[in-house]
Design goal:
alpha/beta; 5 strands; single chain; five-stranded parallel sheet
Length: 241
């Protein structure tokens, strides 16, 4: 899978990754001292953390979510927490069955948090994962690297498409064009039983499209469980959800 990495689908700044890794080392009593030694290495704990963080960066998981965990930081709809536990406890089974789910709800309810946590558990199990927004998808598949972008989107082990809502479908032509792209990704992944997770503010994502494409998307959504996420915007309350 690594030979299919598409930089057009990556948005985590390399400088920020380096900064986070350096802070991990600086915060460790052992490793911070070892840095002054010519052959100084990393302790086992830091080695594991840095390996994980590098995998998160490769998967395009936003830096903010690297240290946020559903089991200790999430405050919100218990249904969401229960669904996460079911998925996280059986990542190999989720991959084998090709689980598809769409988290629908307003802003700040934990949709992105649950999806990024699922991806973290997947990469920790050795699977390839990718986090993108719908805008990332649109930008990448219309770029000069569109072949590699499509290859990765349809073939990566675990895929999350965040911010999937109608605001990018302002015209009928845009709806038709982007609808065909989305249909291609969903249909191919569904046929190959590859797990796909989505986040949307709309209770019915097919409403972003029209005509034949809308009917096709609606049909494909039958293979995707829709999970309604309820509650208040926890970000306004200073929560990490």
């Amino acid at each position: 899978m690594s030979n299919m990495r598409c930089q057009a689908l990556r948005s985590v700044p390399i400088k920020k990754v380096d900064d986070v890794l350096l802070r991990v080392i600086a915060g460790c009593v052992i490793c911070s001292k070892n840095r002054a030694k010519p052959q100084g290495g990393l302790c086992d704990k830091c080695s594991i953390i840095i390996k994980a963080f590098n995998r998160y960066a490769e998967s395009n998981i936003p830096v903010r979510y690297w240290t946020l965990e559903m089991n200790k930081d999430f405050v919100g709809d218990e249904t969401l927490k229960e669904y996460y536990d079911k998925i996280a406890n059986d990542i190999p089974g989720v991959y084998t069955s090709g689980t598809n789910a769409c988290f629908a709800g307003m802003f700040g309810l934990g949709k992105t948090m649950i999806c990024t946590n699922i991806l973290k558990r997947a990469v920790e199990k050795g699977y390839e994962a990718l986090y993108v927004t719908l805008l990332d998808v649109i930008s990448a598949v219309t770029s000069g690297d569109r072949y590699n972008a499509r290859s990765e989107l349809i073939s990566v082990d675990f895929l999350v498409i965040d911010e999937f809502d109608p605001r990018y479908m302002a015209t009928e032509n845009a709806s038709d064009f982007f609808g065909r792209i989305v249909e291609d990704i969903f249909r191919t992944r569904s046929q190959n039983c590859l797990p796909t997770f989505m986040c949307t503010n709309s209770p019915d994502v097919s409403n972003a499209f029209s005509g034949v494409i809308q009917q096709s998307i609606k049909s494909l959504m039958h293979d995707m469980e829709t999970i309604m996420v309820l509650g208040d915007d926890f970000r306004k309350k200073g929560s990490n959800a």
